[in-house]
Every structure is written in C-alpha cells, then in structure tokens.
Design a protein that fits this description.
Blueprint: E1 4-7, E2 22-31, E3 34-44, E4 49-53, H1 60-67, E5 73-80, E6 83-84, E7 94-97, H2 111-116, H3 135-147, H4 163-176, E8 181-185, H5 193-208, E9 212-216, E10 229-232, H6 236-239
Parallel strand pairs: 4-9, 4-10, 7-8, 8-9
Antiparallel strand pairs: 1-10, 2-3, 2-5, 5-6
The structure holds adenosine-5'-triphosphate.
Adenosine-5'-triphosphate is lined by residues 31-32, 36, 54, 56-62, 99.
Pfam families: ABC_tran (PF00005)
Family: Belongs to the ABC transporter superfamily.
Organism: Goekera deserti
Amino acid sequence: MLLTSVARPRVAPTRGPGEDVVSVRGAAFGYDRRPVVTGVDLTLHRGDVVAVRGANGSGKSALVRGLLGLAPLLAGQVDLFGRPQQQLRDRSRIGYVPQRHTVATTVPVTVRELVSSGRLSLPRHRRRPWQRFGEADRCAVDCALEGVGLAGYDRRQLSELSGGEQRRALVARALAGDPELLVLDEPIAGVDAANQRVLAATIAGLAASGTTVLAVLHELGPLAPVVHRVTALPSAGERC
Ligand SMILES: Nc1ncnc2c1ncn2[C@@H]1O[C@H](COP(=O)(O)OP(=O)(O)OP(=O)(O)O)[C@@H](O)[C@H]1O
C-alpha cells in the first residue's frame, strides 16, 4: 500500500536543521497481530505540518498511535528524533492529543489546572520536578490557553465546558509542554470555525519556530493553508 502525499507551501523552521523528527519506513501497525495499516513511509522534518487523512477505519489513529509506541509496530521501522522509537526516553518532547479523551469530568479540575499538568512531565533540564510553578510555567500555560482561544477560561471547571471547549483545553495541555513534536488526532472535531482558525494560526506559529506537527484530520478546513503535506490512507475496503 502506498500513501499519497500532496505538497503544500511550507514555512521555514527556525529551530535549525537536524535529524528527521519522524521517520517511518515500511511500517505496519495494528492490533492483536492484525495489521490495520501497512506499507507506511512517512518522514517529517522540523517545522513540518503534515495531515493524515482517510476514511473511517482506514487506520489513521492506528498510525499515529503506532508511531508513538501506543499501538504495536508489526513490521518496518519507526525512528523519532533520529533514534528507534523504543529508545525515546524523554517523552515530554512529544505532545499528544488522542482522538478520544478520558478526562474524568467528575474530578473537580479547573481549565488552568488541566493545562498546567502539561508542564509536569518536563524533565530536569527543562523544569525541575520539585520546582514550584514559575513565571515561565505561567506564561506557557497562558500562551497555550490563548493558542486555543480559551484565554479567560482558566478558572472554569473543566466539567462545565462544552465538548469542543474541552477538546481545545486538551490541545492547550499538549501545547503547554512546549513539545518538539505535536501529534493531534482530530483536533478540530467538534470545534467551531472561528476557533479552528485560532488553532490554525497557533499551528502556523509553532511550525515557524520549528515545532513539527502531525494531525489526523477529516477535513482540513481552516488548517488547509498551514498544512504542508497531506498523507492519505486508503480505505479499509481498498486494502482488501
Ligand atoms: N484497540 C483496538 N483493538 C483492536 N482493533 C482496533 C482497536 N482500535 C481500532 N481498531 C481497529 O483498527 C481499525 C482502524 O481503526 P482506527 O481507529 O485507526 O481508524 P481511523 O482511520 O482513525 O478511523 P476514524 O476516522 O473512524 O477515527 C478499525 O478496523 C478498528 O476497528
């Protein structure tokens, strides 16, 4: 199976060149030893914004979960930051927002607390574990909230937010960790057009500063101008 790619204009990264951020070669991902997506070849450089598209069940989530080590790699090779994915120690280099989130809305947590939790896993060289939240942490949280159009929501209870607002809060949590690779599984599902545009501007800014973004998208919508390449998966029917 070959994935099709559509090139789009790209923004030059400013974090500098280096190894590929993501390199997937001849990979198959699946569940219970059953491949659901095969023959995946995908390379993302610093500052790339790549969309993964495909029909329901085509394996988009399996692909992104597989490259993060959350779904079994059944064949081929996945390298992240120039090393085999299994050797990646500092997981905080990656921000991931899964398609289905399990934020317990019965647990009382404010939007700021949720987004701040995105800073907790930063390793010593970026934030000491015992260190109290400092100015840099507060700024990162504020920027993240702004980046998803939730500035001013920080004291609201997460459980009181709408589905689309909760989704944006989860994206903000990933942004707060200042990841080098941001993996978003359907980040604009259920998000209104105005806030999709806010997220598009945020992603463009991240890419310009060298963050790499891989997003599963059913429709590109307002993200179209900021997406550099589209990788399309064949539908489950076409695979047979
Ligand atoms: N945990 C799991 N265990 C077994 N099979 C799974 C699991 N998760 C997904 N699958 C199967 O893998 C296939 C691909 O699912 P996946 O969620 O990756 O598709 P998708 O392209 O993201 O679909 P959608 O657009 O509906 O989100 C489907 O046939 C699905 O039933």
